[in-house]
């Protein structure tokens, strides 16, 4: 519990994303932190200190101020800006200036965002960049944030003059700087908007985009108007569960079974089976890392041993084949598109191979209008954690379903044409 003698803004911490500032008896800010839940995170400092300096710090706190933000992503950005402004004593003690992470935008014809450690950033080096943001306390969170906003601001880290387009160009996350097809003027505007976003000026960007969309629509440039509309929608509905990784392991890492732990911000593998009346059966494996698709890690399986429509047996075969690939990285969580029979099938395979990986299922419910987390009796605690992050797991499930359907159509089409 937070001691009653500590003065809290509005007498209560809200259960929303934001940034909190801890002050001493002189009113000096001695610590700045970000939170997906201000209420939960601040309480943890007093109940479960996560660093050697925290107990010493909490004894000096007499006042807690906070700033609410709509998303964890914006809390991450504000935290960095406030740390840079105040350089609070206990932020620096916890992670000295040299080990902080910074976001630098290069000063080039096609500027690139780079992650730079404090050890590699002195005054002379900083002058070589267009702008430098930070310090950020978590390189993982900063990378996740940068990857996330790429959907609205398709930046590139490519050097022009390449013979082949980069992987991200195919995903429409790079405008083609690599192969020289990027519009220079449009790309520079993208970078300016990216800079504004990390300055904490999302509302200014949205207002400008609204004007752009209306002007494009009025001039019947409908495709351009639609692209801007999609950017507006994305910025107003940011799904940023992976951006703010909790510092305390008790929040995002639990032990649902003996010796087993799960990290929902690590590697999640999602599986789905696709067939029509038991024909051309295939399975998909998609991978999310830090809450975002890692498409280079996707795998697909043509079912070999199962006759007829049997999703449970097909899932058993798929996981048996996947888990024999010891060279593939082990997932932190296996997510099955299906109910308890599929979950049990996955657990049977893991038990047979003597491998410990948490397993959950996700189903749409009887009316197919909601997402139900499905767990066996051995993972009830895991279920509680997964329900908090059901939106992330639904994204994994939907991507596994999309990938399976795409592969199934390809296999079925080939079978129709060749008879094989």
Architecture of the largest domain, according to CATH?
A: 2-Layer Sandwich
Share of helical residues: 40-55%
In total, the number of strands is 16
Radius of gyration: 24 Å
Number of domains: 3
Question: In whole angstroms, how far apart are the ends?
Answer: 66 Å
> CATH superfamily assignment of the largest domain?
UvrC, RNAse H endonuclease domain
CATH topology of the largest domain: the name is Nucleotidyltransferase, domain 5
Biggest beta sheet attributes: 7 strands, mixed
Low-confidence stretches: 244-261
The total of helices stands at: 15
CATH class of the largest domain: Alpha Beta
Overall pLDDT level: 85
How would you classify the helix and strand content by structural class? alpha+beta
Describe the structure.
The protein has 420 residues and is an alpha+beta fold. It has 3 domains: 7-94, 3-Layer(aba) Sandwich (GIY-YIG endonuclease); 107-236, no CATH class; 249-418, 2-Layer Sandwich (Nucleotidyltransferase, domain 5), CATH 3.30.420.340. It has helices spanning 38-47, 54-58, 72-86, 89-94, 123-126, 139-149, 167-170, 184-198, 202-218, 222-236, 249-252, 311-323, 340-352, 380-388, 390-418, and strands at 7-8, 18-23, 29-35, 63-68, 101-106, 113-117, 129-136, 253-257, 260-263, 267-276, 279-289, 292-293, 299-302, 333-337, 359-363, 372-374. The strands form 4 sheets. Strands 10, 11, 12, 13, 14, 15 and 16 form a 7-stranded mixed beta sheet that branches. It has a 4-stranded mixed beta sheet with strand order 1-4-2-3. Strands 6-5-7 form a 3-stranded antiparallel beta sheet. The N and C termini lie far apart (66 Å). Residues 244-261 have low confidence and may be disordered.
